[in-house]
Amino acid sequence: MVLTARHRRLLALCVAALLGAATVVILVDGGAGDSQRQLFAAARASLASQVAQASAQGYTAEDIQPVTVLARQVESRPEPVWVGDRAAFYRAQTADETSLEARLGEVRTALLDQARQADQARLEEAAAKIAEDQKLGTDAPDLKTLQDSYAKAVGARASGQTLADLRNATRSAEAVATAAADVGAAQKVELAALQQSADQLQVQGLDALQRTGKDAVGSARNDATVGTWLKESGFDRAYRLLEKYAPLVSAGDIGQAALGTAGVQRYGQQIHDALVKGMPAKAIVISMQGQELRAFAAGRQVADTLVTTGHPPDLATDMGPMKVLWKQSPWKMHSPWPKESPYWYPDALVQKVVWFTNTGEGLHDASWQPAGTYGPGSQFGASGSHGCIHVPVPTETFLYDWADYGTPVIVYPGDGSPLAGQLAQKTTDDQGNPLTGPKGA
């Protein structure tokens, strides 16, 4: 078709009009698009802020993944090419971001609720296991440790505000439940072993069984006294359990007496093992009741003899933890009391002395004491010393050469009474100095 000049002018005018209108649309829509883009940017920043806050409060990437995955999808959508579509595009983007922020709030609330429920379940589990341990007769300090840990876990729940707080509280509660379960399992094994031993002991008969049990109690109490004065550790639990079972030994029912005897034998052995394990390189221990001296090298007995200690009550050998101070050979024993004193004695020569106090107490030979007169009760007779300890010559010779300065010398009651009672009979201070008067030297 051939266009005339007039037609061409009309066509040009129409095109110009259309182009003008399009420019107006582009300008108008372009301004609306910028505004919506800014709203979207604000919504996006708000969501990012909430995600960061959630992370700071302990929500993991996995926890908030349902939101962050969709957010990445929304934010990766390409902007429309045609400017006129951008306002609607960013309006939709903004709505999606706002919806995701609301969704994030729902996720956070749901996870908090789940965390509280999980923590409560673990606390209830821990409480139940601790109650079971108590019924099983778990040692009081062990039970208290569990109860204290449980109280801390309860406190952690009460003060927990964030998801991280609650999850940490749950882990604490789980740890308490696990510890309580382990204690209970160990207690059941221990009780089963005790009952098995008790069943075997019953064949002895009640009288013999009770004698066995009482001997074990006294020996263990003596060991605990020596260990305490040697400043050893590791037998506290065993001693508590020893005293727990000790009363059962005297029960009239053979089953209870057997259980008591099994208990004191088991825990007495543990006390003895701890004593031996904790022994210093050298040690000398003297039982006042048994009038017996034993020497140990790293827990191995190297000497054992009957002795005679100071005559009670006024001249009794001091009791407590002491140590070798010096040695003399020979030595003239000279009375520190005047001749008119009932405690006076004539000068006496001894071959070797191992002194363990600075007031005149030592281990020495006594040529004037007849052989066979050493041992229990000899301290009350004519051979009772003026505070020193009479030792037969062969053992005294060994000790004089063997004992180093500083070697512990433990003089203990050895009467089989409870630990507190034996410790209360100490007559020395913490440095091993006697609190009584001077002895014969």
Q: Major beta sheet, specifics?
A: 5 strands, mixed
Helical segment count? 10
Low-confidence stretches: 7-28
Q: How confident overall, as mean pLDDT?
A: 91
Shape assignment: elongated
Radius of gyration: 44 Å
Residue fraction in strands: 5-15%
Q: Please estimate the helix content.
A: 55-70%
Q: What is the H-and-E element order?
A: HHHHHHHHEEEEEEEEEEHEH
Structural class: alpha+beta
Mind explaining what this structure looks like?
Mean pLDDT is 91; it is low at 7-28. This protein starts with a helix and ends in an 18-residue tail after the last helix. The chain has helices spanning 5-56, 65-75, 86-135, 140-159, 163-201, 206-229, 236-245, 254-278, 393-402, 419-423, and strands spanning 282-287, 292-297, 300-306, 320-323, 326-328, 331-333, 348-350, 353-355, 362-364, 389-390, 408-412. With 441 residues, the chain is of the alpha+beta class. The chain is elongated and about 130 Å long.
Write the topology of this structure.
Blueprint: H1 5-56, H2 65-75, H3 86-135, H4 140-159, H5 163-201, H6 206-229, H7 236-245, H8 254-278, E1 282-287, E2 292-297, E3 300-306, E4 320-323, E5 326-328, E6 331-333, E7 348-350, E8 353-355, E9 362-364, E10 389-390, H9 393-402, E11 408-412, H10 419-423
Parallel strand pairs: 1-11, 9-10
Antiparallel strand pairs: 1-2, 2-3, 4-11, 5-8, 6-7, 8-9
Helix pairs in contact: 1-3, 2-3, 3-4, 3-5, 4-5, 5-8, 6-8, 7-8
